[in-house]
Amino acid sequence: MTDYCASHELLTLPQALAVVRHVVEPIMEEEDCSCGRALGRVLRRPFTAPVDLPLFDQAAMDGYALRRSDITSEPPYRLRVVGTVRAGQVWKTPLQPGECVRIFTGAALPESADSVVMQEHVERDGEDIVLANATRSYDHIRRAGEDIARGADLFRMPKLLRAIDVSLLAASGVERVPVTRQLRIACMTTGDELAVPGRPLPPGKIYDSNRPLLRGLLTQPAYRVTDLGNVGDDRERLREVLRKATGDHDVIVTTGGASHGDYDLMPPLLAELGEIYFWQIAVKPGKPLLFGRIGKTYVFALPGNPLAVMVAMHHIVIPALRRLCDLPIEPPLQLAATSLDRLKKSPGRLEFQQGVLSWQDDGYIVRSAGGQGSHQLGSASRANAYIVLPAECRGIAPGETVIVEPFCAFETV
């Protein structure tokens, strides 16, 4: 087999991401989406507020709405309660001198009222209230448009819509928005050794854990994922599956068969069917990562070990998917933490170890999650963060500061 990597140095992670930024072109197609289904979708173009938020002057708490001009003399102040207004109601007549209304949070402010006094600061005396202290104009009032004025941009672009963003759209009365169409992603595994979970396991076989891992990492509303199953190590079958998938998908993600062995079929097939942008990166785990293109479909061939798959997905593939969605490729959240364990490492490659991050006293601490082999799912299951060890690092002693990346930082597009 041709060694496509013979004349190339390993790319660093920043170099690989630079290639992704340069090569991957955002999808420009859009579709109309109801706000009820817009969570996790990417807003396609700027959207202006159709109304003021708040819609009208309203009480910020339970109390009494009054005219500030009625309490300009020396305290105490006595006002007549002429009614009650609840949220959803409107007081239809302007307040007259010396009048106030009982008002509840969210209710529209009566005409001519310009202040709300908290109910805790009022004494009720029959049909009157007595205030011991003066209030200020617009105390405890939400002014119309103070949050967002009509015609203002609702979001900074580009925008991945979160739950609070969908809430903002609903508060603005928006029913439908233009979003980037879903990315069409195909995923598959390779390897004759893989068997389907739930069935008897023949000798020498292992259960396919990478397909559920890929599906889990690609469970986002912005993606539409097709599981193509396990293709095995049949060159002709793999060629045909790749050829067919390129016609219907924006991205193909495979695991296994991406290194130098006799049954590592992805490098020669990708070279035959399309083009290779890079192969192998200076990252552990995840070195044999292949990125290329067949026609208009981007192809990521990942290593076969599950922890290498996870690292490659988090640090290369998902950033590429963000780029396809026209979102910026942003570095993951990184925190400084004190290592409680001795961490072994050889210099040469950037390494992501599995760690358990927590808070103690006045800072973050991190422990090793256990064995760091790229096949060790048990350690990864216990972990909640990567411990990021630079390429030049020769190991970490207990008490030293390390950089960690919480897994929760990778849970969105």
Q: How would you summarize the topology of this molecule?
A:
Blueprint: H1 13-23, E1 30-34, E2 42-43, E3 58-59, E4 63-66, E5 77-85, E6 99-103, E7 115-118, E8 122-125, E9 128-131, E10 141-142, E11 159-160, H2 163-171, E12 176-180, E13 183-189, E14 194-195, E15 206-207, H3 210-217, E16 223-230, H4 235-246, E17 251-255, H5 266-273, E18 275-279, E19 283-284, E20 290-294, E21 297-302, H6 306-324, E22 335-339, E23 350-360, E24 363-368, H7 377-382, E25 385-389, E26 401-406
Parallel strand pairs: 5-6, 13-16, 13-17, 14-15, 17-21, 19-23, 22-24
Antiparallel strand pairs: 1-12, 2-11, 3-10, 4-6, 4-7, 5-9, 8-9, 18-20, 20-21, 22-26, 23-24, 23-25, 25-26
Helix pairs in contact: 1-6, 3-6
Task: Describe the 3D structure.
The chain contains 7 helices and 26 strands. With 413 residues, it is α/β, with parallel strands linked by helices. A hairpin with a 2-residue loop joins strand 20 and strand 21 (297-302). The two termini are 36 Å apart. Residues 1-7 have low confidence and may be disordered.
